Amino acid sequence: MLCWVSSRRPSWNAGAVRDDVREYVVEHLHDDAAVLVADETGDVKKGTDTAGIRRQYTGTAGRIEISRVAVCLVYADAREHTAVDRELYVPRSWTGDLDCCRAPGLGEDTVFATKPELARTTIERFTVAGAMGAHA
């Protein structure tokens, strides 16, 4: 979902898109044998202005690089799979510095969470919405 702001630049509402995708998956792809798969993925970056960026291991490069990492949730069944959620991994070095979090727009309420905690958050968000019912 893109929202236009006064500067005439599009503003992405990632939460609304996530919710729309989840609704589509539940309505059109629902399979009682489906599973949720949580995994991290890294994006190699240049510069220092990207939220969550730091020197860290990323499987994308197979080594320590300047990158950011996200935990992704995928809905998978025997026929297909699709990404249904994500949470940015924000290193403790970022969450301990409010100015660091504010600069890329993370906000003062950003707290450190481990990757397994982020995976749990995405799974709970998906199941609370009634998407997996008792099969989670």
UniProtKB/TrEMBL annotation:
<dbReference type="Pfam" id="PF13546">
    <property type="entry name" value="DDE_5"/>
</dbReference>
<dbReference type="InterPro" id="IPR038721">
    <property type="entry name" value="IS701-like_DDE_dom"/>
</dbReference>
<protein>
    <recommendedName>
        <fullName>Transposase IS701-like DDE domain-containing protein</fullName>
    </recommendedName>
</protein>
<feature type="domain" description="Transposase IS701-like DDE">
    <location>
        <begin position="11"/>
        <end position="127"/>
    </location>
</feature>
<dbReference type="InterPro" id="IPR039365">
    <property type="entry name" value="IS701-like"/>
</dbReference>
